[in-house]
């Protein structure tokens, strides 16, 4: 109750209302004019921002700040929704919203929707009876998106007063990622170039503090531009104050001479601008986001006392007495071989020769069988080749008719093949399989076999930060936010932040009418680590999305580009890599990115060649965990050539004898559920004798699974290009026709 009373009051920040147009025929001008025509209300127009004004009602002891989101600008709508107290959706009285409005609502719902109201201006030109029917039809249209929402007609001053009262009294919806961080929307901004360069300087941003108390020693994130430090925080006079103190000062200055009027006014303003706090270099958060790796670190470590004692004990255990001539050193004695050892080595050599002879005899015994089956093999191979080529030709012709774009056609085919034959690859003929797959290993069980998370880490892991216990650190930070009082600018204060080393492009963006939104960072949130997002494919997009493709992320208050990995969402300690973003299951997306403490929503976009951003997936931040193991699986397939009771001769999995011996320890399985292992190779062309737990079917396929851990690529880029404005439903067909021409 206290929170609701403070919002928009004298002690709290103004009630920030963002107008969002959901239809091409919806116009904000009439709505703003009606809202400005309130009795006993004072209107302050925003400087340099079209469609923005503040509304002060001393009688109601309320103040509002209305901002209009530029129609078609995705980043502006999402950025303003991050800090807005309420969203005011402007609908069309006939259709509600169009295709661009539907796309906008999808993004807003995925990011997190604050309190909202639905306004319907217009519709007065219809007869009363048709007006009621149109209202019922519109209520049925919006029921899917807003099941319990109330429509507010907006044609008279009385209706606008009802809308304002609803905005002031409705229950505020909380967005977790902003409630635990201080944030503000820039009301005014000023850029002061530095002495070294005009391209970088200090940005003085003025606005109302929201969310939490703002500490000058913490870092601040300017949405879309990066992380920065603050040098000081000032407290200028509140431009939207309900207190008439400024009016009295103006009356007092009017009684003086005209010459002294301007001077006294500026002196009074200078006295009013006071420095609240300055940054302490000893307490200020660092901007360091990466660890600078030391190439010599971990090269040579001095053994501990326990390791030295263990080594000494093992030497004593392995020590043997050998007769040596006088004057022989310990080093020379170590090379003298005892007679018994020499004899045992000769026996071993003889055993090896016997094994070679036995192998040769086995090859000779099998050669007759191989020769007798060569004709059958050639005949079967010819049949397989003929069938495969004809089927591929039919598929290519069919797909060429359906899709003109060859690149998209190839992606669709790869996605379909991955669904039909997951993770299956062909064994290369020109490179030995033991060389081609030397980084892979076999596992007895993917679920229970151990895998060390610190084994064979890439060099990029030396650049990131990792928590000893991430969940415990997160709980401790959130507990401090809730219980401990931090020094700084309190919620509702109008302050000016001096942000250091800001590029001039930030000020240029603000002058162009883009919203300037700032968020304070929690400790460690500027540091790089491995982030895992749980996402689900958005139903509006059906194009195939491969792993390691560049995507655009909107994570909480951040925007960045990265090339992610996709993996299955399971409770096990190992997670299988997915080559495509699946439409029917929730997947985990893994990237290198700055640390963010959950909860935080995430939106994934893919940029088209024409600059538009397509929403492909939505979800939330799962964890910050570099130890999450993502495993890539490869499946080698073979076909049973001769089937006996529980044994079978398998071919086409390998093409030489050495590969069969190399992969002999790995367990086999079949598509029909049989399990087995390789007993021995037959011949020199990759045929092998395998034993299974039951008799195989002739149409079964023998599979061998290989596994390798994979890591994301370091492609993090905090600069995201501005998307092309949305195309309304009437213009989509025109764009497609132009592209086809």
UniProtKB/TrEMBL annotation:
Q: Where does the record place the region Disordered?
A: 280-311, 333-388
Q: Which domain of life is it from?
A: Eukaryota
Enumerate composition-biased segments (Acidic residues): 337-363, 371-385
How is this protein annotated for GO cellular component? Answer: nucleolus; preribosome, small subunit precursor
The GO annotation for biological process reads:
endonucleolytic cleavage of tricistronic rRNA transcript (SSU-rRNA, 5.8S rRNA, LSU-rRNA); maturation of SSU-rRNA from tricistronic rRNA transcript (SSU-rRNA, 5.8S rRNA, LSU-rRNA)
Q: One Pfam family of this protein, by short name?
A: RIBIOP_C
Keyword Hydrolase tagged: no
Q: Return the SMART domains for the record.
A: AARP2CN, DUF663
Q: Where is the Bms1-type G domain?
A: 13-173
Query: Sorted alphabetically, which keywords does the UniProt record give?
Result: Nucleus, Ribosome biogenesis
Q: Where is this protein chiefly located? A: nucleus
As for subcellular location, the record says:
Nucleus, Nucleolus
Entry GO MF terms: GTP binding; GTPase activity; U3 snoRNA binding
The protein's job, in short, is: Required during maturation of the 40S ribosomal subunit in the nucleolus.
Q: What family is this protein classified in?
A: Belongs to the TRAFAC class translation factor GTPase superfamily. Bms1-like GTPase family. TSR1 subfamily.
Q: What protein name is recorded for this chain? A: Pre-rRNA-processing protein TSR1 homolog
